[in-house]
Task: structure prediction
Amino acid sequence: MSDSLIAITGDDFVLVAADTTHTRSIMVVKESGEDKIMELDSHKLLAASGDNGDRNAFCQYVQKNSALYRLRNGTPLSTRALANWTRRALADALRKHPYSANLLLAGYDASPTEGKPGKVSLYYIDYLASMQQLPFACQGYAGHFLLGLLDNGWRKGMTREEARELLDKCIEQLQTRFVLGAPKFAIKLVDKDGVHVIESADA
Amino acid sequence: MARAYDARTTIFSPEGRLYQVEYAMEAISHAGTAVGILSTSGIVLAAEKKSVSPLLEPVASSDKMHKVDSHVAVAVAGITADANILVDHSRLVAQRYSYEYGEPQPVEQLVRRVCDMKQGYTQFGGLRPFGVAFLFAGWDEQHGLQLYASDPSGNYGGWKARAIGANAQAATSILKQEWNDELDLDGALKLALKVLSKTMDSTTLTPDKLDFATLTHSEAGGVAFKLLGNKRMQKLLDETTLDNTEDD
Result:
């Protein structure tokens, strides 16, 4: 809950931000430098919040299974298929050995037809295995502060600059009003050219 | 000489052959012919219904054609009971995939899974192979319309047009001559009928001796798998006989 994840989609990109702290209860294990946005493959990002151990283990599980599918079948999973697979994995584990991980999955899927533009999508998946495709989303307490701001500020077809401005406003809000508003956020973007690191998690 | 290597399915003969697999293929060569033809606007699956006894109660379902998922169908040649097991297995595979991924399974992956099962019976377990060959017709987003054929060894291939079952050789030579990449669905239906009329024993073709189906895709409606009813079948027979008489 103390982790903050924010994601905003445009027509052909998804911007994903995550705080870079590693905390446990009232202690700060590491103030910055923790990268919570995993690059699943060339065109997919998985941002995760939750207990550090579960977060890492589950994200790696998704990443490796995604790679296995690609190797077996010669083609990567679509974002939608991977989101469904991930949700199913969380749902199956839920009443056995649950993972406490909350996720934002963002991806770009090339069109099967040569020359046609692909599409981007963003999926919110929480630790109870609820899933929803959304134009923008948050995980953690951040949502309490930001969903109103995002409701007002988001429009379909925002440019990268506009999305970044909106994201900066969100981060500023957290830093002002959220008692756990981390100073440093890592920011990554995914579009047809792949994954781009806008702000590195490294301190 | 070969007899000594027959009993166990899972051993090679000295010449490097798997006799049980070959015997399975022999069984299939006695089964009703099935033909699959890829066209620009859909896939035709057509089959001969073998020896319809007048005492048999007609059933609604076909024993030659089966829908596996909303986007995949199969035509069968071989031992019906064996085929039913594999068709059911492929239905499970398809549903498990969409349960896990929330999307229809790519056609080739489904074919590969069924074939992997067939292959298992040629390598371990000591059970005989399935005496079935399939023609899979399907559509997926990545590759569009596709036609695959599989045999008891677990091998499969993608085809533009393919025949399995009795007289498959004869059927194949006609297909080789007549198939072209500009055939539309109607052309494919007529070609399938022409092929079957040459390979079947009976002199006159009637709808009750044939099972015809089409698998098509449209942006609006998605994938449609349709078994041709008797009236439609009779119309096709009338149209094609007319064409044939013109050729003669």
User: Anything to note?
Assistant: Helices of chain B lie at 19-28, 80-101, 107-120, 168-178, 185-199, 230-247. Chain B has a mean pLDDT of 92. The first strand of chain B starts at residue 34 and ends at 39. The beta strands of chain B are 34-39, 42-48, 65-69, 72-78, 132-140, 144-150, 156-158, 161-164, 210-218, 222-227.
